[in-house]
Amino acid sequence: MKKWYAVIGDPISHSLSPYMHDHWFEKHGIDASYIPVHVEPKQLEQALRSMKLLGASGFNITLPHKQAAIPLLDELDETARIMNAVNTVALENGRYRGFNTDGDGFVRSLLSYPVDKDRALLVIGAGGAARGIVFALSRAGFTDITITNRTFRRAQELADETGSKAIVMADAEAHLSEFATIVQTTSVGLTEEALPLSLTHLGSGSVVADIIYNPLETPFLKEAKAKGCLVLNGVGMFVNQGAIAFEKWTGIRPDTEEMIQLITEKLGGNYVNR
Ligand code: ATR
């Protein structure tokens, strides 16, 4: 019987997940389809019950439901518990189990670049996205993580929880050249021409990542590139979080590099093979 999967969110019409998963299903000869479902917050509980009733084999959860869905699922994986947010649900023995593949998706994307896990890494931001990423970086064996955030207290709390260091923005700016890897997790650059921190002291040898993928090149990445750094945008994280979900559903590891190219072109960019 044909299987079906979905992504639920509000809004949902611009999601690239249906394109990505349908492409992979087709490529691997899997008789399944993936549909976007618009669910408003007040309908979430009813929607999740309906998913089970109608036999969804799995689904993704996007904004604004990633936290609210938690008590409505049957089981929670460690990744979702740590982040207090779910982005992927898989049907296991008739029960819906929630995962969070965002942090690991980011790390997989980062690891396709020449990064050294033992050299200093700076995370800018201490919100939900940063949380998933810092935990995933630690799990992956990064040993020297420093967090900076506009609201220092949040950076300190996340650092305490993950055995990392926290520094105020001004110190991060002054010591930027000491970080081999820099990861931008805030929403700055999404809608405005602004930087989360000054890049004046950025050296040319760092790998600089932004988790934003639309625009493909934030002002932050543009400036880092102009300074000679190797930059990566959030397309790789988006594709890899989807690939990890796909693996949970099908057991198949899809071609992420091809998808990064397709999504980049869909967003009007030019794919550069490294
Ligand atoms: P997300 O789940 O996307 O991480 P969040 O939990 O609301 O969203 O966190 C947003 C992050 O972006 C925070 O680190 C936030 O800094 P504060 O903790 O000081 O709020 C950061 N952020 C948002 N707007 C910012 C701005 N204009 N300048 C600097 N940091 C900003």
UniProtKB/TrEMBL annotation:
<dbReference type="Pfam" id="PF01488">
    <property type="entry name" value="Shikimate_DH"/>
</dbReference>
<feature type="binding site">
    <location>
        <position position="78"/>
    </location>
    <ligand>
        <name>NADP(+)</name>
    </ligand>
</feature>
<comment type="similarity">
    <text>Belongs to the shikimate dehydrogenase family.</text>
</comment>
<feature type="binding site">
    <location>
        <begin position="149"/>
        <end position="154"/>
    </location>
    <ligand>
        <name>NADP(+)</name>
    </ligand>
</feature>
<feature type="binding site">
    <location>
        <position position="241"/>
    </location>
    <ligand>
        <name>shikimate</name>
    </ligand>
</feature>
<feature type="binding site">
    <location>
        <position position="102"/>
    </location>
    <ligand>
        <name>shikimate</name>
    </ligand>
</feature>
<feature type="binding site">
    <location>
        <begin position="15"/>
        <end position="17"/>
    </location>
    <ligand>
        <name>shikimate</name>
    </ligand>
</feature>
<comment type="subunit">
    <text>Homodimer.</text>
</comment>
<comment type="function">
    <text>Involved in the biosynthesis of the chorismate, which leads to the biosynthesis of aromatic amino acids. Catalyzes the reversible NADPH linked reduction of 3-dehydroshikimate (DHSA) to yield shikimate (SA).</text>
</comment>
<dbReference type="InterPro" id="IPR046346">
    <property type="entry name" value="Aminoacid_DH-like_N_sf"/>
</dbReference>
<dbReference type="Pfam" id="PF18317">
    <property type="entry name" value="SDH_C"/>
</dbReference>
<feature type="binding site">
    <location>
        <position position="87"/>
    </location>
    <ligand>
        <name>shikimate</name>
    </ligand>
</feature>
<feature type="binding site">
    <location>
        <position position="213"/>
    </location>
    <ligand>
        <name>shikimate</name>
    </ligand>
</feature>
<comment type="pathway">
    <text>Metabolic intermediate biosynthesis; chorismate biosynthesis; chorismate from D-erythrose 4-phosphate and phosphoenolpyruvate: step 4/7.</text>
</comment>
<feature type="binding site">
    <location>
        <position position="62"/>
    </location>
    <ligand>
        <name>shikimate</name>
    </ligand>
</feature>
<dbReference type="Pfam" id="PF08501">
    <property type="entry name" value="Shikimate_dh_N"/>
</dbReference>
<keyword id="KW-0057">Aromatic amino acid biosynthesis</keyword>
<dbReference type="GO" id="GO:0005829">
    <property type="term" value="C:cytosol"/>
</dbReference>
<dbReference type="InterPro" id="IPR036291">
    <property type="entry name" value="NAD(P)-bd_dom_sf"/>
</dbReference>
<keyword id="KW-0560">Oxidoreductase</keyword>
<dbReference type="InterPro" id="IPR013708">
    <property type="entry name" value="Shikimate_DH-bd_N"/>
</dbReference>
<feature type="active site" description="Proton acceptor">
    <location>
        <position position="66"/>
    </location>
</feature>
<keyword id="KW-0521">NADP</keyword>
<dbReference type="InterPro" id="IPR011342">
    <property type="entry name" value="Shikimate_DH"/>
</dbReference>
<feature type="binding site">
    <location>
        <position position="234"/>
    </location>
    <ligand>
        <name>NADP(+)</name>
    </ligand>
</feature>
<dbReference type="GO" id="GO:0008652">
    <property type="term" value="P:amino acid biosynthetic process"/>
</dbReference>
<feature type="binding site">
    <location>
        <begin position="125"/>
        <end position="129"/>
    </location>
    <ligand>
        <name>NADP(+)</name>
    </ligand>
</feature>
<keyword id="KW-0028">Amino-acid biosynthesis</keyword>
<dbReference type="InterPro" id="IPR041121">
    <property type="entry name" value="SDH_C"/>
</dbReference>
<feature type="domain" description="Quinate/shikimate 5-dehydrogenase/glutamyl-tRNA reductase">
    <location>
        <begin position="117"/>
        <end position="187"/>
    </location>
</feature>
<dbReference type="GO" id="GO:0050661">
    <property type="term" value="F:NADP binding"/>
</dbReference>
<dbReference type="GO" id="GO:0009423">
    <property type="term" value="P:chorismate biosynthetic process"/>
</dbReference>
<protein>
    <recommendedName>
        <fullName>Shikimate dehydrogenase (NADP(+))</fullName>
        <ecNumber>1.1.1.25</ecNumber>
    </recommendedName>
</protein>
<feature type="binding site">
    <location>
        <position position="211"/>
    </location>
    <ligand>
        <name>NADP(+)</name>
    </ligand>
</feature>
<dbReference type="InterPro" id="IPR022893">
    <property type="entry name" value="Shikimate_DH_fam"/>
</dbReference>
<dbReference type="GO" id="GO:0019632">
    <property type="term" value="P:shikimate metabolic process"/>
</dbReference>
<feature type="domain" description="Shikimate dehydrogenase substrate binding N-terminal">
    <location>
        <begin position="7"/>
        <end position="89"/>
    </location>
</feature>
<feature type="domain" description="SDH C-terminal">
    <location>
        <begin position="234"/>
        <end position="262"/>
    </location>
</feature>
<dbReference type="GO" id="GO:0004764">
    <property type="term" value="F:shikimate 3-dehydrogenase (NADP+) activity"/>
</dbReference>
<dbReference type="InterPro" id="IPR006151">
    <property type="entry name" value="Shikm_DH/Glu-tRNA_Rdtase"/>
</dbReference>
<dbReference type="GO" id="GO:0009073">
    <property type="term" value="P:aromatic amino acid family biosynthetic process"/>
</dbReference>
